[in-house]
Amino acid sequence: MDTAVQEYDAKLDSKNRITIREANYEYYHVSVLPDQRIILEPRVLTAPFTVSANTLNMMDQSVENLKKGKVSPAIDLSEFME
């Protein structure tokens, strides 16, 4: 098992919250185990509706290929239609 970097006792406040001292992250995923241990895993949230530079480059290449006629044959999806 890993050695604790920081250890302290905490008490719930009047709204049932606990303060994490010197927290390195703003968001955490909380897991409560059957033996009542609580695990906090840091989460880094990304802005919604953003597209990475790599994805944008791939989309640009796909559009170029489409304009050049470099496409695969059409796929028949009629068996999936009602």
Structure at a glance:
With 82 residues, the chain is an alpha+beta fold. It contains one helix and two strands.
Walk me through the structure.
The chain has 82 residues and is α+β, with helices and mostly antiparallel strands. The protein is 20% helix and 15% strand. The protein is built from one helix and two strands, in the order ββα. The chain has one helix spanning 53-68, and strands spanning 27-32, 38-43. Strand 1 (27-32) and strand 2 (38-43) form a beta hairpin. It is elongated and about 65 Å long. The mean pLDDT is 90.
Order of helices and strands: EEH
Radius of gyration: 25 Å
Poorly predicted sequence stretches spanning 5 or more consecutive residues: none
Task: Give the mean pLDDT.
Answer: 90
Topology, element by element:
Elements: E1 27-32, E2 38-43, H1 53-68
What brief labels describe this structure?
single chain, 82 residues, alpha+beta, two-stranded antiparallel sheet, 2 strands, 20% helix
